[in-house]
Design a protein that fits this description.
The protein is an all-alpha fold and 171 residues long. The protein is 50% helix and 0% strand.
Length: 171
Amino acid sequence: MKVRKVKKIKRTSPIKRTGSFLKQVFLNLKKETIDGASLPDNREEHQKDIRLFVAAISSMALFIVLVIFANAGRLTFQTISRPGFNFFTQQIDDEKIFAQALNIAKNPLPFKWLIAIFVISLFGGFGLSKRLKFATKDVAYGQKGDERFTTEKELEKQYPIIPDHDERGDE
């Protein structure tokens, strides 16, 4: 039986690559094609591209969530620290504060806070991508049978035939 080999596509230098970060990640993900049953040679590089993509997406999501909650906390603190506000007799309108926190253009955070939140979200995103396990890990790579089908002789040797008995063998 003839097994076709993996086609390797020549990669261009990073200087020749143009476009946004996401375009580069998607181009790297599409470059591997498997024609036969063998696994790709550059699976570590593929896994790094996926981790980088997951880190970028999770960092952006974490940044948005942290900015909204930091803005809500700042607005809550401003409401509590107003002169004449009694914490025991007056209630804080959480829905109104959260609606104001979502409007970042009207109630912007200080620039230093945004930088700190951005750094925290980068560390959180890259930490999350390191802890996740991806489907590109080395499953059955280099083991016997990863490039061919199992023969009937190997199946018979591995799984012996159990004879059918109509009667009990003890008697």
